[in-house]
Design a protein that fits this description.
alpha+beta, Glucose Permease (Domain IIA), 7-stranded antiparallel sheet, 3-stranded antiparallel sheet, 10 strands, about 50% helix, about 15% strand, binds zinc ion, Dup_hybrid_motif, M23ase_b-sheet_dom, metalloendopeptidase activity, Cell_wall_metabolism_enzyme, Peptidoglycan DD-metalloendopeptidase family protein
């Protein structure tokens, strides 16, 4: 029985241990640990983590140190001086290497941005400077081209005038010689003004066109059917009455503008500014293109150039305001307009270097262009 009793005791003890293992209070202990301590630990860990995070953020986003503090950091030597002046030295806190790297990176990008802005600004001002220089060069080039063109045109006109004069001289001499021969044959003395008479005769047919009187205006005013006198009641030659280029102005045509340019559209009617007689109507193949010349009662001639259409013929009397043609751009003209010239009494229309400023005469007959 002792054995049995001993075995029975061991068995009992084992069963007691087993019972103790299955004890509800062990489970209660466990469940209490799970319910109370685990959340407590968890909360503690969370709070600690949050604290560390907050500390890290406030540290990294802290405002830059004051200049004084930085001074102190860079030069620790004057700390004693600082102490004497301001009391205790400020708390010196050194950045961690990570924070220093971050600050360095931020400064790098800030610097790069500023350099970019400086570069862009410089580029913009350089571009503006270049554009201005190019514009100036273009303007200078155009001006030079215009000048060259004008000079070439003027040389051409001078050569033309010289040829015309030489031809006139040749014909005058031929006429004088012929007259002298005729006089010799007739056994009479040659008249003293044979040359002048020859000149007048030759000039009247200079351009191969019929003209009234002599083209150089040698016929005194009043001898061609129009009574000599003051011209009044003038009319604007084109409807606009607006001047584009004035007399003497520098332009494409020449370095010296021999008339005024009235602004007008292609095909607009052109009117005689005053009553008179048509002394030329045609195209002599030069700069004027189709043009009409009219001599007025006071001996002044007006000339209307670059016409697209001519509606009068030489010798025809015209009234003030009568339509004589249409605006065009024949001859040397850049775009349609009316080139209008005024010649004093005795000057042949087309003798451009003797043309006068049309405005005073126009104003005197009551025409006031704008
Ligand atoms: Zn003109």
């Amino acid at each position: 029985m002792r054995t049995a009793s001993g075995a029975g005791t061991l068995h009992r003890q084992w069963r007691r241990f087993r019972r103790a293992l299955r004890l509800p209070h062990l489970r209660a202990l466990l469940s209490r640990w799970v319910r109370v301590w685990l959340p407590a630990w968890f909360a503690a860990v969370l709070i600690a983590g949050a604290g560390v995070t907050v500390a890290a953020i406030t540290d990294l986003t802290a405002p830059p140190r004051s200049a004084a503090t930085q001074q102190v950091v860079r030069h620790p030597a004057p700390l004693a001086q600082y102490d004497r002046n301001f009391g205790a030295a400020p708390q010196i806190r050194l950045n961690t290497p990570a924070q220093n790297r971050l600050v360095a990176v931020q400064r790098h990008y800030q610097l790069a941005g500023e350099q970019q802005i400086i570069a862009e600004t410089a580029l913009k001002s350089y571009a503006a400077e270049r554009r201005r220089a190019l514009r100036q060069t273009a303007a200078r080039t155009q001006h030079a081209q215009e000048k060259i063109f004008a000079e070439r045109e003027q040389r051409r006109i001078r050569a033309m005038v010289a040829r015309e004069l030489a031809e006139r001289l040749r014909r005058e001499q031929a006429a004088a010689e012929a007259e002298a021969a005729r006089q010799r044959a007739a056994g009479a003395e040659p008249p003293a003004d044979a040359a002048a008479a020859g000149a007048t005769a030759s000039l009247s047919n200079e351009n191969g066109t019929t003209q009234v009187g002599t083209v150089d205006g040698a016929t005194p005013p009043g001898q061609d059917g129009i009574p000599f006198g003051r011209v009044v009641g003038g009319v604007m030659p084109v409807a606009s009455g607006t001047i584009g280029a004035r007399f003497g102005a520098y332009g494409f045509w020449s370095s010296y503008h021999t008339g005024v340019d009235f602004r007008a559209g292609f095909g607009e009617p052109v009117h005689a500014v005053a009553a008179g007689v048509v002394t030329y109507a045609g195209n002599s193949g030069d700069w004027a293109g189709n043009h009409v010349a009219i001599r007025h009662a006071d001996g002044v001639s007006t000339m209307y150039s670059h016409l697209s259409d001519i509606e009068v013929s030489p010798g025809q009397p015209v009234a003030a305001g009568q339509e004589i043609g249409r605006v065009g751009q024949t001859g040397r003209a850049f775009g349609p307009h009316l080139h209008f010239e005024v010649y004093p009494p005795g000057i042949r229309p087309g003798d451009v270097y003797r043309a006068v400023d049309p405005l005073p005469w126009l104003n005197s007959i009551g025409v006031h262009p704008r």
